[in-house]
Amino acid sequence: MAADPQGPGSDAGGRRIVCYRCGRELRVSGKALSVFCPHCQQRLVLENIRISGLCPTREVLTCGDIVVEQGAQLHVHRIWAQNIIVRGRVVGPVTARGSVEVTRSGRIDGNVAAASVVVRDGGIVKGQCRIVRGSPPPAIAPPTGQSSAAVRPSDPPRSASPPAQSLGAPPLRLRRPPLKPPGS
């Protein structure tokens, strides 16, 4: 993943963002990569994120933009960003304050909520698309005292997958051995 600290809404003295946890607006330094929301006391990632390869993680949340590169596979419980471009495959709900673009090689298996949704010829969205005026609802924060990695009864069982990729790290490329069909 690559980071660009001068993301959307930036100016010389700072930029205004909307907290993806509580939905409230705040002003941050133009060079900041992450901040704590003074309203909900949650850490916010501000950088742009580029995903390539297989990325098994629970959620990808940023006040910047997300690009899922061609050939990348992202299996998540939720994605929330300013703008999202999908050139690879995303499995899970996608929410953007701005636009979601699915290119001809892109595929989303999940619901999409954004101010603008563009699906290029050959792109696939398998789910409901909802055009949201203003800000989409914030990503729901876990209840106080419960980490976001806690397993709830409705969650599918966890597999023995490698740890999720750090949001500030370079692109992660994981290779898994192919699954063997039952009975072989």
What is this structure, in a nutshell?
This protein is mainly β and 184 residues long.
Describe the structure.
This protein has strands at residues 15-18, 25-28, 34-36, 43-45, 49-51, 54-56, 59-61, 66-68, 73-75, 78-81, 84-86, 89-91, 94-96, 99-102, 107-109, 112-114, 116-119, 124-126, 129-131. The strands form five sheets. A five-stranded parallel beta sheet has the order 5-8-11-14-17, with no helix packed on it. It has a five-stranded parallel beta sheet with strand order 6-9-12-15-18, with no helix packed on it. A five-stranded parallel beta sheet has the order 7-10-13-16-19, with no helix packed on it. The protein is mostly beta strands and 184 residues long. Strand 1 (15-18) and strand 2 (25-28) form a beta hairpin. Residues 1-11 and 141-175 have low confidence and may be disordered. Among the domains are: 15-45, no CATH class; 49-131, no CATH class.
